[in-house]
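task queued by scheduler; priority normal; single chain, no ligands, no partner chains; default sampling; output format set to structure tokens
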Amino acid sequence: MILVIFEVDAAHLPAFTGCLPCGMLNVCLHQLYSYTCGTRRLIPNLIPMQLTTPHTFHLPVMGLAFSIDSPVKVARFGISSVVSLSDDALLEHTRSHYSQVYNRPYEPITDKEEDYRAKRTTAFLNLLNEIVKEQLLEMRTQDFTPETDLTKYFTLLPDASPLSIKYKQMLQVKDEAQKKLLQDELRNALVAGKIDVNIMTKLDKTNYSKTGEPLSQEYSDALAALRGFANSTVNSSVVFSAGMNMRLFAYLEQFPCFLPDAKGHFEKTVIIKVSDYRSALVQGKILAKKGIWVSEFRIESGLNCGGHAFATDGYLIGPILEEFKQNRQTLQAELYSLFSSALASKGLHVPVEIPAQRITMQGGIGTAAEHDFLQDYYGIDATGWGTPFLLVPEATTVDEPTLQQLSAAKAEDLYLSSISPLGVPFNALRGTSSEELKQMRIDKGKPGSPCVKKHLVSSTEFTEEPICTASRKYQRRKLEQLQEQVQTQTITQEVYLSEEAKVLAKECLCEGLANSALQLFNIGKKAATKAVTICPGPNLAYFSGVFKLQQMVDHIYGRFNALNQTYRPHMFINELKMYVEYWKNKKAEQLENLTDKQEKYLSSFWQNMQDGIAYYKQLLPELFRNQLERQVLMLDELLDAEDVLLQARLSKAEAIV
């Protein structure tokens, strides 16, 4: 999709019909119209999008290590990516590695320094920014020959991009002077992808001094990461994921870089990852009342995603996108009212026009047709592709053994696990080196991991200071407690085995999700302690092998097919099946001791899925225009899911029990 935004007097609007030429004018007066080729959608009274990157997709955050250096790999090609700020030690290791690769001076920031977490974050991001700028400058000196990054920049672009069109025109020009003029214009038009960062709001532990005293809250993990980002030179976005953190949201107010300047521009912006419209509205309001504008709501499927899965209460992604589509302007206007009032109350400049607010979507997207439909029908500004890029070494950082496991993985190798110490379902791959290490420790009678980084500490069941449920300290005490309960006949042996399995399932994600980078950078510890956990989404089952960056980008834009031979239902069907299975498991877990609250939850969840199925039935003619066979096939899949739900429906008798 190419977004064409232009200024036009409202009185002349009827004269504009049909498909406009691809192009872009970034102006706003009376009415703004957004066009896709063959489609016209009215978007009145909104500021135009600042389309600063040429691609219509981004790379989401992937684990801790897997996208840690993605900006160094893809930003020079105009592709935006997200790095995790959760592990300051990994940031420091990565800075050390790339300082050496790019011959930059490196001064270690040790954990003995005051505010080292924030300082490490700032130094890491500044280095990434310097490297990407240097790469872009170097690209501008290159020739337009097949092997150069300069040529690659333009061959990666979507075909309808104005830059791609100009590039192809340049190739056809015979006159050398005219060709050189066009080449210079193309070089000057190079724009790097964004170096965005992710802060998982739930990872915000309080830190302690060497004497054991708790440090003030600005030294907590999430606040230190935010401060490090705010103090860096990057002009990009912080992506908040995993829900609300009120002290983190409040801390944003202390940094002018998140406020608009006199022209309404932001040095740094805020993106909120959400699973539904209500979450966007609630979090957007909280921030707007503080004078913080959400520049993007990043919608992610609750289950059809990589890593931690925050399931909705049965709300499917199609109806969620529809709600955003119907309420987008209302949402933006309501947030602007609160935002402008908050700025005015602080005596700060209030933008005359509503700032730009993007809506993007990620999770389970697998074809160019799905990518295009999300943009054309729902008005999504861009899509996120994570899991498929784990198979692209030019874009992500995955150690060779794990990469080979991923490339050969089938559906049965991917599962929604309980390995996360946070107690949140976690999409993972079976048979990883981390799983093997965990089992080896269990077999030796020493379950649990040494807890060094402590990013996921949460339990105070046995200690005053929180500890991690994947740690040796916690698992030893928990298993001892369960054994005592068996001996005193407080619980049965059957219950003990069930609870023991839950305890032993937890893995050290702090190490497992970071170790790929340490292996590839040849940094740190013994091989035995570099076991890897990886977090692909279920979508991986439809991609096999290892791909070049050009191939995967071409797949997104419909110029190459990266799918394997496995039959792949539409992304809406894949997610629906996951939700049906998730609901059935929840029902089985809760049925024995079903409370009124649980019964209402299960019934509401069931009905929301039924409503989603009804929505998809009505959507079929739009989803597969002039493709009757595809409509019939998906209708059959919807009816199958409907039958499963009807057969498994919570009966009144079950609810009474």
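post-processing summary
- The first strand starts at residue 33 and ends at 36.
- The longest helix spans residues 317-345.
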